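Renewal narrative, Specific Aim 1. Our central claim is that a sequence can be written position by position from structural information alone. The example that follows is taken directly from our test logs and has not been curated for this report. It begins with the structure tokens describing the chain, in the order in which they were read.
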């Protein structure tokens, strides 16, 4: 590739967090980059356009008339998609995003990968920031926008690359989990629960994919896992050839956290039988304490001592849409949170409850993920909302299952069929000191801006 004749790659599904990050890295490498998506909207569209990447709204055969040398196809694309069919009919070279990344970016680099059902984005952001703060200038690809960086991906200036290692499949022609392509030297296995019901038949199918990842980690590498995660332990029992260090929020692990504040906003770090200092930060929840321990353990594997990792975490600013405060006005606080699995909802509300005590919490949930839309977690979803004083769950017309079952398991839940009803219900209940948590992995019909305008 030369500066005069850069290769042109075209990305299908470019506004997804992974594919958008890949586009940014390809642009840094000097490629001409274009892409199409069904939903072109900020913040990803803004990120991409600022880097000179041409975006096309909708999937059409004519989008390929730009003459790409290679088409990178996202995992949301399937046969029958007009642009996919045009790629095949025109005999254009194509590849999955994870394979392109492995071949063009990750080869010969020290890859630090963060896998797990929950906490991948936050932990990857923490680890990237620890490396950055300590002068390592890593590359990274994160499924969100960490506020310490302002971008979701970059090539980096060192041998180190930190990546969010997703278990979702690669493409319609490659049904392996994305992380199988990454071949990390340092791997965080945060947790493992049943999710992605649209592609995994059961929990054992996900365990099998996690073990495929374990098989790729070198004997001189490192695996980091919580001591309390039985499903991860069962994966490792299937065969492990790599040293494993354990994290815990009590005694017994290699890395230990002693909670100073019950909400996780302050904790002491122990490693190697010694105290290394306190992390005091704006994050809450025991899950984030585990995320921090994993990030510190991974950073130590490349030579960053605990006290320097702790200093970095004190300055960590989290990720957009992870309990991000979008309104704070006259006793009212509105949070935007990406939680879209019952466990994530429960741990998020637990951290907030420990922080705010008996103050009112309203939880508003859009069941938008593929697993949620299939109704797999009916009872678990209801029970995950127990710590909220009141919960509203959105029932759009095309959901596919009847949410009226939820109040059978919890009496604090109300079902609303449209956004106007949700907003009216919130207005009626949001009195005095009140914390409103909006939980969705999508745009939630623009409710965020509506509430900013009407309640802020």
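The sequence written for that structure reads:
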């Amino acid at each position: 590739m030369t500066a005069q004749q850069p290769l042109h790659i075209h990305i299908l599904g470019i506004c997804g967090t992974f594919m958008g990050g890949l586009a940014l890295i390809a642009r840094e490498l000097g490629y001409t980059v274009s892409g199409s998506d069904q939903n072109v909207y900020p913040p990803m569209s803004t990120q991409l356009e600022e880097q000179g990447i041409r975006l096309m709204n909708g999937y059409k055969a004519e989008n390929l008339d730009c003459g790409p040398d290679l088409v990178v196809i996202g995992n949301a694309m399937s046969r029958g998609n007009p642009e996919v069919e045009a790629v095949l009919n025109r005999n254009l070279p194509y590849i999955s995003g994870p394979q392109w990344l492995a071949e063009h970016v990750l080869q010969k680099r020290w890859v630090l990968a963060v896998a797990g059902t929950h906490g991948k984005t936050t932990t990857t952001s923490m680890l990237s920031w620890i490396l950055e703060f300590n002068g390592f200038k890593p590359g990274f690809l994160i499924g969100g926008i960490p506020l310490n960086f302002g971008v979701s991906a970059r090539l980096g200036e060192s041998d180190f690359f930190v990546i969010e290692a997703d278990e979702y499949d690669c493409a319609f022609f490659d049904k392996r989990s994305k992380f199988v392509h990454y071949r990390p030297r340092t791997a965080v296995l945060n947790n493992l629960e049943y999710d992605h019901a649209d592609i995994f038949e059961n929990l054992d199918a996900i365990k099998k994919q996690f073990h495929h990842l374990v098989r790729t980690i070198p004997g001189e590498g490192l695996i980091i896992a919580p001591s309390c995660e039985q499903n991860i332990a069962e994966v490792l029992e299937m065969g492990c050839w790599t040293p494993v260090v354990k994290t815990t929020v009590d005694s017994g692990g290699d890395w230990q956290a002693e909670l100073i504040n019950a909400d996780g906003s302050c904790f002491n770090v122990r490693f190697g039988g010694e105290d290394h200092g306190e992390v005091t930060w704006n994050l809450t929840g025991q899950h984030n304490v585990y995320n921090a321990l994993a990030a510190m353990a991974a950073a130590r594997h490349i030579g960053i001592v605990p006290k320097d990792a702790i200093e970095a975490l004190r300055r960590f600013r989290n990720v957009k849409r992870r309990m991000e405060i979008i309104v704070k006005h006259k006793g009212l606080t509105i949070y935007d949170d990406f939680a879209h699995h019952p466990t994530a909802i429960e741990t998020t509300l637990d951290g907030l409850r420990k922080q705010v005590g008996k103050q009112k919490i309203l939880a508003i949930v859009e069941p938008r993920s593929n697993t949620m839309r299939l109704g797999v977690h009916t009872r678990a979803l209801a029970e995950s909302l127990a710590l909220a004083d009141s919960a509203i769950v959105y029932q759009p017309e095309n959901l596919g299952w009847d949410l009226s079952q939820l109040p059978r398991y919890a009496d604090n839940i109300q079902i609303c069929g449209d956004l106007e009803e949700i907003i009216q219900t919130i207005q009626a209940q949001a009195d005095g000191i009140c914390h409103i948590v909006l939980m969705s992995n999508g745009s939630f019909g623009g409710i965020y801006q509506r509430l900013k305008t009407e309640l802020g």
